[in-house]
Amino acid sequence: MILTLENLTKNYGDFTALKSFSYEFNPGVYGLLGPNGAGKSTLMNIITDNLKATSGSVKFDGKSTVEMGAEFRKILGFMPQQQGIYPNFTLERFLYYMAALKGMKKQDAKSDIERLLSLVNLKDSTNKKLGGFSGGMKQRALIAQAMLGDPKVIILDEPTAGLDPKERIRIRNLISQIAFEKIVIIATHVVSDVEFIAKEVLLLKQGEIIDSGAPHILCEKISSKVYEIKTDEKGLEEISKNKKVGNISKDDKKIYVRIISDDTPSDFKFRLCKPDLEDLYLYYFD
Length: 286
Description:
This protein is α/β, with parallel strands linked by helices. The chain has helices at 40-47, 65-68, 70-74, 91-101, 106-119, 135-146, 165-178, 192-195, 215-220, 233-242, 277-285; strands at 3-12, 15-25, 28-33, 55-60, 63-64, 76-79, 153-157, 183-187, 200-205, 208-213, 226-231, 244-250, 255-260, 269-272. It contains eleven helices and 14 strands. 35% of the residues are buried.
């Protein structure tokens, strides 16, 4: 099972949203990281055939997904951001409606919906209207609809946007659980969403991949660039002007500043830190 993107380019007049994007996805979780305007949404919309590429192709097991048409849509699950929710639908009606759009038979949909409601922990909310759901419940409902028909490729757009930490962890674990033997692509601004569950992370900037790989390997590339500086308020002001600052903490005596820098902060007391994916994000995109 391979999803292959070959030289995908999307132009809007003189603006290039995606530039010669090529990648090969196998089963597992992939994270798309990048600032607004990096091309994440454009890429997802091309994969899901909601948008036509200016050039290039998307292939599943060597077949063009455009030529596959409905055959590809049957094995594709897409979770948009929350604007895809119908507030006056009950959860059950919403899932049956989405199953019908996927061309599922009612009997097949019935057993699938029962399974998915258990998986996303919403069995007790079957007859409740979506408009009354919390943010986390809406996200779980959207994940459930994305999984109808047991798709082989699942695209998730900001699956934990606006959620509290407890719900984020619940959604993250759910995604990890469903990813066995599926290709799962997550676009997110929440770095921790993919740090522990993604087998590979793609860093996008201005429509191009600037780096990719397993999170721990990417982080190793900046292993000598992350420092914790011990300083005072005057030093903090100087550091904030000249360095990429991650975290700031304070005790009774000193301020501790985590920075990402190509240069050793020799004017301050410092220690090297083990980098994480958030440090990597700041290094490339701040």
